[in-house]
Structures are given as structure tokens and as C-alpha cells.
Give the backbone structure.
Amino acid sequence: MGQKTIQSLEKGLDILFLFIEERPSLTVEEIALRSRLPKSTCYRFLNTLKKKNVIEFDGVSGKYKLGVRLLKLETAVRSSLSIVEISIPYLQQLSDLSGETAQLVVLNKSEGVCVERVESTATLRVMPDKGTPIYLHSGAAGKVIMAYLSPEEKDRIIKEKGLRKFTANTITNPDVLRKELDEIRRRGYAVSDQEIYPGVKAVA
């Protein structure tokens, strides 16, 4: 036997779910048509939702739209998700657009750590293992993290971890690295041209 539900609540939620990115505003006639409810019933639901500030009515266009109070629900949902869960659709989109592997790297003390990835479908691809620590001075992901640390944190990491050379393109001079990090912070992204692996480039 199925669990009992409140049908009026279901209908009210169904009306809310009619508003999507492709149609952010609707007239009461459109709502009635899509919900298959009488227009008078739709008005009652809409008035209740308006009272709770989850629906707004635009008197100029004559259409209803979602209210700003719903942003509180979005904030609550996001706070209940881990950064990994939130990142997956964005990693998938990046991988689809670029045709390359996309990864999420986070700061862990003096290193970066790959915590999630979406693999490229290309025959030749770089696939860092989850949990793999990376140096912050080399590679796009590490440098973009390091760029937003305080000067004291940068100096501590350079002193503690050193500037290990992986390839001929790895930055091993502290002053050159600091200038590179300043430039990354100015433009908002980092690039890596064979700094860790020969033939491998990256953007973060």
C-alpha cells in the first residue's frame, strides 16, 4: 500500500515545477493548460504561493514568476551538498566542451588533491587518480589555487615543499613563480604548457 499524500500540496508543487529556465514566467491560462487544473483553482493556488512569497505576479506582463524567497531553498540545498556533488555536472560540461579530462582539485595543507574527475573519451588522455596529491607550483590547477593564497602562505609552501622540477618548463625560480601567480590572479585563470608531463597542456 502506497504512502498517503496531501493532494493539494502536490498540485501546488506541480505548479511551481512548471517554471523552468526555458519558460521563467507564465500566465494563469498557461498554468491552467499545463497543470490541467481549472483556472479558478489555479488562482487559489497562486494566491497562496504569492502569500508565501514563492510566486510573484508581474502586473505589466500579466505573468507569474518564481519569487526570490526560493533562493533560500537553493542556498539550503547547496549547503547540504558536498563540493564534489556540486562539481560533477560542471566537470562533465567542461569535458564535453573541451574533449579533455576535467578534474576538481582542492587545497590540502601544502598540496593540491584531485577529489573528482570526468575522463576524456580521447584515445590519448591524462587521467589523474582521485586522491593524488599535486605540487602547487606546477600545472594549471595547482597554480590557480596558489595564486589566491596570501603571500605568507605562498612563501611557506615554497619553503616547505620546494619547487621540484618535472620538465624543462617547470617554474623553479621563486621570483618567477610569484610573478606568474600575480598574473594568474589578474587574469582569473592559469595555463600550463608541459610543466608536469611532456606534451600535456592544461587550463584552470
In short: The two ends are 52 Å apart (CA to CA).
